[in-house]
Design a protein that fits this description.
Layout: H1 6-11, H2 13-27, H3 37-45, E1 75-79, E2 89-93
Antiparallel strand pairs: 1-2
Length: 114
């Protein structure tokens, strides 16, 4: 997948412009789709041939957003993890910042191993 942070796209207009050009070029192809993680899972649960994807029912569902967003200004948490000594990682969360950066053996960031 392609993952971009908003600050990277805002830092230089050229980055955003090139990404838009790339997306526009990809959208001209009939075998490229921009989908969410949920849509990938839906396709995995119901694999569908390329020629039938335009009518793939699961991808036609629309999200009905109601109410205010849970959090419009998340905490930017500069955190460390013992798996990457000396590095500071930034976690954005609407919850309280954990003590450590969550990792495979410390999924909650409390410093405990599972």
């Amino acid at each position: 997948g392609l993952h971009f942070h908003a600050s990277w796209l805002k830092s230089k207009k050229e980055y955003r412009d090139e990404l838009i050009k790339f997306i526009e070029e990809m959208l001209t192809r009939n075998d490229v789709f921009f989908v969410t993680n949920l849509q990938v899972i839906q396709w995995m649960q119901n694999p569908t041939e390329l020629n039938s994807l335009r009518d793939f029912q699961e991808w036609k569902e629309k999200c009905d957003v109601k109410g205010q967003p849970y959090c419009s200004l998340p905490n930017a948490c500069p955190l460390t993890t013992r798996e990457l000594p000396g590095e500071t990682l930034r976690l954005f969360t609407c919850m309280e910042c954990p003590n450590n950066y969550p990792w495979i053996l410390d999924p909650t960031g409390d410093g405990f191993s599972v």
